[in-house]
Design a protein that fits this description.
Blueprint (H helix, E strand, L loop, with lengths): L3 E2 L1 H8 L3 H10 L9 E3 L2 E5 H17 L15
Antiparallel strand pairs: 1-3, 2-3
């Protein structure tokens, strides 16, 4: 049987507050929190899916190309 996280445990795992997780869920911001499953009126997250979601986020971050910072402001006179 899979271990399930409730909203408080998910918030602790991700380093968010419960209010922040609730706000992301209300906005359906799936980039900030993984999609839940419904158990009656309660929401739950399988631990394996949350860990896989975090791994995917890390992999996506590592695959991004690194650009040198562009200069801001007026170009220098030569």
């Amino acid at each position: 049987m899979q271990k399930l996280l409730n909203i408080g445990e998910l918030a602790d795992f991700l380093g968010f507050t419960v209010a922040a997780v609730s706000a992301h869920l209300h906005r359906k911001n799936w980039d900030a929190v993984p999609k839940p499953i419904k158990l009656g009126r309660r929401l739950a997250w399988p631990v394996e899916e949350v860990q896989a979601w975090v791994r995917d986020k890390i992999q996506a971050r590592d695959e991004q190309r690194v650009f040198s910072p562009s200069r801001v402001g007026r170009p220098r006179r030569m």
